[in-house]
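Entry type: protein chain
Record version: 2
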Amino acid sequence: MGLRKIFSMLLMDQRGMSIAIHKKRKLLSQELSMTLKNTIKYGPFAGMIFSRDHWWGNSDRGAMLLGIYEQEILNSIMSVQKKYNVFIDLGAADGYYSIGSLISQKFKVSYAFEISIKGRQVIQKNATLNNCSNKLHIFGEATKVFYKNIPKKDLDSAVILIDIEGAEFSLLDSELFSNLKKSIIFIELHDWIFKDGKKKMTELLSNAKPFFKISTLATTSRDLSKFPELFDYEDSDRWLIASEGRPKLMSWLRLDPRGT
């Protein structure tokens, strides 16, 4: 058997394994959703209800229900000063953060930007389920002037979460950072999907540096021993529930306004 065929078979096996793992994560999340009645039980978003409909991240639902999904970002968001009481979510998906931020009662109003029509429909369903439609404003794609949809007083007291699958590099230029300079900004980074990712990161950091103090967050450990719902799961299944299915170690930027 030639080397090319061997490598092709190995690649097919790897892809097949990845698909199988994704399906198992989805099944485990569905099972835990039934157990917890589609309601987050732990963490600052505890009490948030998901509709059965979804657009994004149904395989992440188990981790969300346990309050451990992106817990590094979640904990950092919840640690901001009280004066930051507005939440802005760019790439809001199903509304986990934009609605959860309201459920936490740390934020008084939330703005969700989601490019997908289906995503916006799911966000609205989830907002209705959680009785917070009057505090949530839903918009489409976040452009370079998205901030014009938001009152200045809200923008200046906002936490902004940006998770737009690589589009952060084309969106966040020096002019936009200047208009957001009083907000705290969290950015999920996707530099690794670009051949010139290092160049894009250098440019993004250069654009942000005059206005913000910059720190980095990365995925850390999870303690699954505290969840009785998982006691009877096999070790591998517990960790699949905790997994976020990332292709590499994920990292984020936290940008804090200079002078604060």
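Comment: The domain at 3-257 is CATH 3.40.50.150 (Rossmann fold).
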